[in-house]
């Protein structure tokens, strides 16, 4: 069926391709991708050969228009280098343009590093905020951390290995006392997930410089007394009303 198929691909372990993703890549007319070499390897692994069309949300207005025009009579699969398209990856503008043009759009869920990291971390997961890459510059990084300070949820960031220790130091300064997780090389041979305080993790990774891909998670702050209320008075009141 013609349309746009948003296809999640593995984040390291090729066994994580879904049956539906493989079937869709086998049946589609073309694959829109970030890097034709990376997607070419995945297609080869699946024993498939399809036209690969490079697509990037920022540089690709003309290619976007051509892709959307072709979706009227072709099945186009959108993949990124790894994981779920649109999650810190291209595709948002393509999906918007396809929807605006009345194209059938469907999503094929699968691997996503943010969700894999969250489920592995042991941090509270009833509420979480995915905030993309933690900025590289000191001031912007501090501001991004301050922005999640008041949010009662686990915050998930994408991070790179060379910046990890600096980011952990910044978390220690801006969000002291938080439980933090570093989820590294998920689904791969050297998968690792460490949860602890930011200063302890910073010391560990300063001594053992990390390699590979990283999800950095920050647990929610401890729930304090409701603003403007005296917790001792509330406790006295509760104890008094509990007396027989
Ligand atoms: N769309 C992808 C997804 O669904 O997870 C994310 C793409 S983003 C450009 C790449 C970042 O995702 C990496 O820098 C890293 O922070 C994170 N990432 C991707 N694969 C990972 C893995 N196997 N283990 C840990 N983090 C990973």
From TrEMBL:
Q: Does the keyword Transferase apply?
A: yes
Q: What class of enzyme is it?
A: transferase
Report whether Cytoplasm shows up as a keyword of the record.
yes
Q: Which GO terms describe its biological process?
A: methylation
Where in the cell does this protein reside?
Cytoplasm
Residue ranges of the Tetrapyrrole methylase domain? 4-201
**InterPro entries, A to Z:** 4pyrrol_Mease, 4pyrrol_Methylase_sf, 4pyrrole_Mease_sub1, 4pyrrole_Mease_sub2, rRNA_ssu_MeTfrase_I, RsmI_HTH, SAM_MeTrfase_RsmI_CS
State the reactions this protein catalyses: cytidine(1402) in 16S rRNA + S-adenosyl-L-methionine = 2'-O-methylcytidine(1402) in 16S rRNA + S-adenosyl-L-homocysteine + H(+)
What EC number(s) are associated with this protein in UniProt? 2.1.1.198
Domain of life per record: Bacteria
Q: Which GO MF term does the entry hold, naming one?
A: methyltransferase activity
Q: Which UniProt keywords apply?
A: Cytoplasm, Methyltransferase, rRNA processing, S-adenosyl-L-methionine, Transferase
Q: Which Gene3D superfamilies match?
A: Cobalt-precorrin-4 Transmethylase, Domain 1 (3.40.1010.10), Methyltransferase, Cobalt-precorrin-4 Transmethylase, Domain 2 (3.30.950.10)
Could you say which protein family the record assigns here? Answer: Belongs to the methyltransferase superfamily. RsmI family.
Q: What does this protein do?
A: Catalyzes the 2'-O-methylation of the ribose of cytidine 1402 (C1402) in 16S rRNA.
What is the recorded name of this protein?
Answer: Ribosomal RNA small subunit methyltransferase I
Gene encoding this polypeptide?
rsmI
